[in-house]
Design a protein that fits this description.
The complex is a heterodimer of chains A (302) and B (123). With 302 residues, chain A is α/β, with parallel strands linked by helices. Chain A has a domain of 205 residues: 3-Layer(aba) Sandwich (Rossmann fold), CATH 3.40.50. Chain A is built from six helices and eleven strands. An eight-stranded mixed beta sheet of chain A has the order 4-3-2-5-6-11-10-9, with helices on both faces. Chain A has a three-stranded antiparallel beta sheet with strand order 1-7-8. Chain A starts with a strand and ends with a strand. Chain B has one domain: Single Sheet (N-terminal domain of TfIIb). Chain B is globular. Chain B has four helices and four strands, in the order αβαααβββ. Helix content of chain B is 27%, strand content 20%. Chain B is an alpha+beta fold. In chain B, strand 3 and strand 4 form a beta hairpin. In chain B, strands 1-2-3-4 form a four-stranded antiparallel beta sheet, with helices on one face. Classes of the chains: A alpha/beta (302), B alpha+beta (123). The interface between A and B is medium-sized, with 35 and 35 residues. Chain B: One of its GO terms (biological process) is tRNA methylation. Chain B: InterPro entries: Trm112, Trm112-like. Chain B: Interacts with TRM9. Chain B: This is Trm112p-domain-containing protein.
Chain lengths: 302, 123
């Protein structure tokens, strides 16, 4: 099992850091990555199943588009547009579930939409690829801006520092107890920047005579050792950057992001001040599921 | 794919471009028509979310004049079928979308619109 390695982000140019350690990696590993991502997580499936018929939404960082066909029991009752920074993943997402999907190439730090045009937005396993707290906060703000100020709903999922037994990943171990990056207090309160390797074993097979399949054969993933084949080139390892979120960090991030844009946090007040419009966002649930933290928000306006 | 359901949601986001940045204008497009599953309930629910004049204008740019300039009061099946076709069955495969305000060009390739900006264009 490939181990998760700690890393420190170069803060001078987080954009080029992400280009190297996130975007370029996904463009390279797209077909293999997509073949390992098919099972929706329960909280996300339930969120999408709860949406009224006729709603339109966006999946910010859609990857291979595995959430675009949902809800499974009412296909086509809502419409989710897939949005991602990786063109190669989008080429897969546009046929997710073997149906034509709508996908758009773009960055989650941008907002190429009519303001508040969507009824819902989801951001699953995406914000943890952004390399600084400021950029992660901006991504949350973008999500809040894309959804309707009066009734928009949002769901955000990120990788947690607390990993469950079922998870195929391992928590970074501490090679040096004096390394402050691994101080348990730091881990719990601030999360951890890590590299997660993606192992692509390559079989160079220039003339695939009598062989099924493609020239390059992806045979390994983060959950398994490279198969014992005789590859003519060594397996290629791609280091993906992640920020592993600490307990409470995502909820704090969403709260801060909302307050900074002038939104009130919490339930809509019962007493309305006449002539004064207020906008807010309520965190309707937050928690931990399958090694991830999630937050669901509802926007309101009075 | 860029179908008109998506076109109706996209706006220019280049630096400083905040007004008259919607709807984007199609340019040099090639289109394909492909059947999609008809879902009357989705369309009825979705209808109030549309920017109607933008949809009608975009459809006309693509050569489809089946929709009335004003959204009708009577939503019958015949109308929903037309709406379904315009929203979900016309695929813009190649070409571009141009901002009516700042003239920024967003290319469309293999049915996927590229809304990325260069670093100096980000607002």
């Amino acid at each position: 099992m490939p181990d998760v390695q700690p890393t420190t982000v170069s803060v001078e140019n987080p954009q080029s850091y992400e280009d190297t350690h996130v975007h370029a990696v996904y463009d390279e590993i797209a077909p293999h990555f997509a073949s390992t991502r098919y099972k929706p997580w329960p909280i996300i499936a339930a969120f999408l199943a709860s949406l009224p018929t006729g709603w339109i939404g966006v999946d910010l960082g859609t990857g291979n588009g595995k959430y675009l066909p949902l809800p499974a029991d009412r296909p086509g009752s809502v419409w989710t547009i897939g949005y991602d920074r990786s063109i190669n993943l989008l080429k897969i997402a546009k046929r997710a579930g073997d149906v034509d999907r709508e996908v758009v190439l773009g960055d989650v730090l941008d907002n190429p939409w009519r303001k508040g045009a969507f009824d819902y937005a989801i951001s699953i396993a995406t914000i943890h690829h952004l390399a600084t707290p400021a950029r992660r906060k901006l991504a949350v703000q973008r999500l809040l801006q894309t959804i309707s100020p009066s009734h928009g709903r949002g769901l955000i999922y990120v990788w947690a520092i607390e990993q469950d037994d079922l998870s195929k990943r391992s928590i970074p171990t501490c090679p040096n107890p004096k390394d402050s990056r691994f101080d348990i207090f730091t881990l719990i309160n601030k999360g951890q920047d890590v590299f997660v390797p993606w192992v692509l074993a390559q079989q160079a097979d220039p003339k695939p005579k009598g062989r099924k399949g493609k020239k390059t054969h992806a045979i390994s993933s983060e959950e398994s050792e490279p198969a014992p084949t005789a590859p003519s080139s060594p397996p290629k390892v791609f280091e993906r950057y992640y920020h592993m979120f600490a307990h409470g960090e995502l909820t704090d991030l969403v709260t801060e992001a909302a307050l900074e844009t002038g939104l009130v946090i919490g339930q809509p007040p019962e007493a309305i001040v006449p002539g004064r419009k207020i906008q807010g966002v309520q965190i309707v649930q937050d928690g931990w599921e399958r090694s991830n933290y999630y937050v669901e928000v509802h926007r309101w306006e009075l | 794919m860029v179908r008109l359901i998506t076109h109706n949601l996209l706006a220019c986001h280049a630096k400083g471009c905040t007004s008259n940045n919607f709807p984007l204008q199609f340019q040099d497009v090639s289109i394909e028509l492909r059947d999609a599953d008809f879902n009357a309930d989705f369309l009825r629910g979705f209808l109030p979310r549309l920017e109607w004049p933008a949809l009608v204008g975009a459809a006309r740019q693509l050569g489809d004049t089946s929709l009335p300039a004003e959204q009708p009061d009577m939503i019958d099946d015949e109308f929903l079928q037309k709406l379904h076709h315009v929203l979900l069955e016309i695929h813009v495969e190649e070409g571009a979308m141009v901002c009516p305000n700042c003239k920024h060009v967003y290319p469309i390739s293999n049915g996927i619109p590229n809304m990325l900006l260069a670093e100096h264009e980000i607002g």
